[in-house]
């Protein structure tokens, strides 16, 4: 695609900064999100995720930097952005006295929907969020956390937004309820851009096209899972399930690859067999060579072999570890 | 303007579905009805100079510290406690519209309660036209002046309640603060009642400042005029300014919360 034909990003952030008193919450972050992308915003507590999301939702102003959401410059028309986005705040606050349908009608009216379009949109979002008629007639205060979360998401989708910002949408949900949220995002993939923050890394891994990892108000990593795997975990990890003892296996492996290390001191025993995890600097081909050699050995019986891809949790810990080491707990940068 | 009506409707709806407002309205109207009945029965033996309708307005005015907190304490304090204020901020509505929408909702509810209270003399007039007529319940100027007086003070009282609700997360604290502020305001008016110096001793400047701001503390003195249908414009303007002042304070507080 040529530069001229490239569609405008839904979110474009350049050198965004925000300070709360003595705490510099954002230290000049820059990123962009394209149309239809699902992007996960990751980071430890206090990393600046919610602050960024609140700035992008037009709730609070940034101190400096540029932020454009759906083509709206937040510095100039902060309030206007609310017409284009759906926002689910952290903890999903909802009025407890209202029925689901009453609340959605009120929110739809506030977002400028009326008449047949209002009725149609409410019907559509109830369907997308799996809120059947019986639930929509119940008071919000009587709903379970999962259903309340669905009501919040339904609200964020009401005005057919081009961008939906979800702050911790799956926090406190059981796996079934989380799956419903994932299903909803899958259903809208390509049509709506999603920016979601989460602590549940498996969730982000399962549904996001791209991840942005934030730590101490800075972006420490950005890209697809594959990009991040390549960048942060340069060792190959493999797992062997065998009936032989640790010393024999380790000795044979060390003969082939000096860099190969056993990752745990005591292997896990499974049905009389032991599970060993190794890591090597020499890539997947040496791991395969090791297992071929071990299979030829008569005194070693291997029943399972698996090359393990580093998961997002490993990447997250590695990406944020460096940043944590540079800061002490009072958020002061070490010299 | 559309968002204003939506917020107003939402606030009014929230009040109508809240049991506490029904309980407060029931007790308030019951006590007011008993007081009104007692006053009408003993009216001939009292030295009350104003039309009997004014007794109901005075009852509503001095009963306001007990009623207004129940109407206004929820509006922002509850939203703050639940965190739903953030959801409201995320909608395309300005903070000023949010504040006047909520105030209007509370004020309309106050008008509904007042209208129910004003049904007492109306019912009396319908059931006993002769006695009602003798008590002046059929005189339109009494109704116009008294109702207008009630509305302008009701507006200010509700704005004070909305402001109190905007500065705390706790409904009870908001209610107590409203009660205290309204009681203080009414006490100032009671203690200043009848202390107006004669115009003859005033300089032109004093006359001007008294005309412009005097009703803040001498509001009760002006009631005599309103109750017989004489409308004092400076009182209306002063109360409107005070209402706007408290609504601006509430908006500033809401803006501060947003940042």
Task: Please explain how this structure is put together.
The complex is a heterodimer of chains A (335) and B (259). With 335 residues, chain A is α/β, with parallel strands linked by helices. Chain A folds into 2 domains: 11-230, Rossmann fold (3-Layer(aba) Sandwich); 234-308, 2-Layer Sandwich (Alpha-Beta Plaits), CATH 3.30.70. In chain A, 35% of the residues lie in helices and 26% in strands. Chain A has 11 helices and 15 strands. Chain A has helices spanning 49-56, 100-110, 115-128, 133-136, 145-157, 175-188, 201-207, 225-232, 246-256, 284-296, 312-326; strands spanning 11-20, 23-33, 38-42, 64-69, 72-73, 85-88, 163-167, 193-197, 210-215, 218-223, 236-242, 261-262, 268-270, 273-280, 302-308. Chain A has a 6-stranded mixed β-sheet, sandwiched between helices. In chain A, strands 11, 12, 13, 14 and 15 form a 5-stranded antiparallel β-sheet that branches. A 4-stranded antiparallel β-sheet of chain A has the order 2-1-4-5, with helices on one face. In chain A, β7, α6 and β8 (193-197) form a beta-alpha-beta unit. Chain A starts with 10 loop residues before the first strand and ends in a 9-residue tail after the last helix. The relative contact order of chain A is 0.13. With 259 residues, chain B is mainly alpha-helical. Chain B has one domain (2-193, 201-258). Chain B has 12 helices and no strands. Chain B has helices at 2-16, 19-42, 53-72, 77-82, 84-89, 95-127, 129-134, 140-166, 171-191, 204-213, 215-227, 233-258. In chain B, α1 (2-16) crosses α6, α2 (19-42) runs parallel beside α6 (95-127) and α3 (53-72) runs antiparallel to α9. The longest helix of chain B is centred in the middle third of the chain and has 33 residues, at 95-127. The chains are: A alpha/beta (335), B mainly alpha (259). Chain A binds chain B through residues 57-61, 79-80, 82-83, 87, 89, 91, 93-98, 102, 106-107, 109-112, 155, and chain B through 2-3, 6-7, 10, 13-14, 17-18, 79, 82-94, 258-259.
């Amino acid at each position: 695609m040529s530069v001229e034909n490239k569609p405008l990003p839904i979110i474009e952030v350049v050198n965004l900064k925000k300070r709360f008193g003595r705490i510099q919450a954002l230290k000049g972050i820059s990123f962009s999100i394209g149309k239809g992308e699902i992007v996960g915003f990751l980071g430890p507590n206090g990393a600046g995720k919610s602050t960024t999301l609140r700035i992008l939702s037009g709730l609070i102003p940034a101190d400096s930097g540029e932020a454009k959401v759906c083509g709206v410059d937040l510095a100039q028309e902060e309030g206007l952005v609310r017409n284009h986005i759906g926002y689910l705040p952290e903890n999903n606050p909802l009025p407890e006295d209202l029925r689901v349908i009453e609340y959605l009608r009120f929110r739809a009216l506030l977002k400028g929907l009326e008449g047949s379009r209002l009725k149609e949109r409410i019907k559509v979002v109830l369907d997308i969020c799996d809120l059947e008629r019986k639930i929509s007639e119940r008071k919000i205060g009587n709903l379970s956390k999962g259903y309340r979360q669905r009501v919040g998401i339904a609200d964020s989708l009401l005005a057919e937004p081009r961008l939906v910002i979800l702050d911790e949408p799956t926090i406190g949900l059981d796996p079934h309820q989380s799956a419903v949220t994932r299903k909803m995002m899958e259903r809208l993939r390509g049509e709506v851009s999603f920016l979601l923050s989460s602590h549940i890394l498996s969730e982000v891994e399962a549904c996001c096209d791209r991840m942005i990892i934030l730590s101490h108000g800075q972006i420490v990593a950005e890209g697809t899972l594959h990009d991040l795997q390549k960048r942060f975990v340069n060792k190959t990890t493999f797992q062997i399930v065998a009936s032989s003892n640790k010393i024999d296996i380790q000795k044979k492996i060390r003969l082939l690859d000096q860099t190969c290390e056993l990752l745990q001191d005591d292997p896990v025993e499974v049905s009389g067999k032991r599970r060993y995890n190794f890591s090597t600097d020499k890539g997947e081909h040496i791991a395969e060579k090791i297992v071929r050699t071990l299979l030829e050995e008569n005194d070693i019986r291997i029943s399972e072999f698996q090359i393990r891809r580093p998961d997002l949790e490993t990447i997250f810990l590695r990406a944020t570890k460096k940043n944590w080491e540079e800061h002490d707990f009072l958020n002061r940068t070490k010299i | 303007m559309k968002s204003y009506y939506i917020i107003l409707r939402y606030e009014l709806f929230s009040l109508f579905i809240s049991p506490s407002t029904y309980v407060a309205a029931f007790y308030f109207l019951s006590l007011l009805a008993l007081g009104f009945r007692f006053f009408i029965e003993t009216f001939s033996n009292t030295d009350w100079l104003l039309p009997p309708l004014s007794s109901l307005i005075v009852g509503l005015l001095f009963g306001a510290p007990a009623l207004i907190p129940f109407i206004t304490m929820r509006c922002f304090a509850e939203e703050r406690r639940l965190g739903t204020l953030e959801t409201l901020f995320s909608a395309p509505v300005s903070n000023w519209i949010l504040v006047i929408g909520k105030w209007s909702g509370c004020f309309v509810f106050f008008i509904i309660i007042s209208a129910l209270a004003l049904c007492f003399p109306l019912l009396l007039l319908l059931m006993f036209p002769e006695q009602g007529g003798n008590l002046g319940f059929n005189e339109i100027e009494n109704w116009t002046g008294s109702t207008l007086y009630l509305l302008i003070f009701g507006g200010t009282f509700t704005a004070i309640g909305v402001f109190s609700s905007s500065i705390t997360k706790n409904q009870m604290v908001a209610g107590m603060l409203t009660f205290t502020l309204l009681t203080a305001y009414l006490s100032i008016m009671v203690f200043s009642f009848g202390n107006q110096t004669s115009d003859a001793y005033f300089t032109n400047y004093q006359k001007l400042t008294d005309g412009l701001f005097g009703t803040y503390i001498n509001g009760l003195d002006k009631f005599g005029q309103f109750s017989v249908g004489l409308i004092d414009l400076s009182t209306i303007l002063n109360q409107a300014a005070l209402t706007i002042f408290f609504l601006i304070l509430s908006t500033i507080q809401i803006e501060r919360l947003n940042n």
